[in-house]
């Protein structure tokens, strides 16, 4: 495996892979009740994160000095389940938006390749 040389192709791949990674993390959390946190930084420094019930909650569970202290962290509480459903629905909307963005980037990349091949034929 190696880094993709084209910046545009890297962006398309990042967008698609990030959505897939976040979707898998969401599924893991839903299926097992696991607290999940994923933080991804682009080389330029832009952060993207996903966490359930939140990134902070999952990280605080990882750190021994930050014990669970409220109903939002208890998997059996109504608040927890309500927030989980809300996050899941928001995440699905985010995935759909990223898919559309990926499709747009694919079309742009195809147009660029097409125009490049067309101009190289001349």
Give keywords.
SRF-like, 2 strands, transcription regulation, mainly alpha, two-stranded antiparallel sheet, TF_MADSbox, nucleus, AGAMOUS-like 29, transcription, elongated, single chain
Verbal overview:
The structure is a single chain. The protein is mainly alpha-helical and 122 residues long. It has one domain (11-121): Transcription factor, MADS-box (SRF-like, 3-Layer(aba) Sandwich), CATH 3.40.1810. 64% of the residues lie in helices and 10% in strands. The chain contains three helices and two strands, in the order αββαα. The chain has helices at residues 7-32, 55-62, 78-121, and strands spanning 36-41, 47-52. It has a two-stranded antiparallel sheet. β1 and β2 form a beta hairpin. α1 (7-32) runs antiparallel to α3. The chain is elongated. The two termini are 35 Å apart.
Element layout with pairings:
Elements lengths: L6 H26 L3 E6 L5 E6 L2 H8 L15 H44 L1
Antiparallel strand pairs: 1-2
Helix pairs in contact: 1-3
Total DSSP E strands: 2
What is the tally of helical segments?
3
Mean pLDDT across the residues is: 78
CATH superfamily: Transcription factor, MADS-box
The CA-CA distance between the termini, in Å, is 35 Å
Cα-based radius of gyration, to the nearest Å = 19 Å
Given the helix and strand composition, which structural class is it?
mainly alpha
Main location: nucleus
Pfam family, one: SRF-TF
Subcellular location: Nucleus
Protein name: AGAMOUS-like 29
């Amino acid at each position: 495996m190696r880094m993709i040389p084209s910046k545009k192709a890297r962006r398309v791949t990042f967008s698609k892979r990030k959505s897939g990674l976040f979707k898998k993390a969401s599924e893991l959390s839903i299926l097992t009740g696991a607290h999940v946190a994923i933080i991804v930084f682009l080389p330029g420094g832009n952060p993207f994160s996903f966490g359930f019930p939140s990134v902070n909650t999952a990280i605080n569970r990882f750190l021994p000095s930050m014990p669970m202290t409220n109903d939002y962290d208890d998997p059996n509480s109504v608040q927890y389940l309500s927030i989980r459903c809300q996050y899941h629905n928001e995440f699905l909307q985010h995935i759909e938006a990223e898919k559309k963005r990926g499709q747009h980037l694919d079309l742009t990349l195809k147009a660029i390749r097409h125009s490049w091949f067309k101009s190289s034929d001349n």
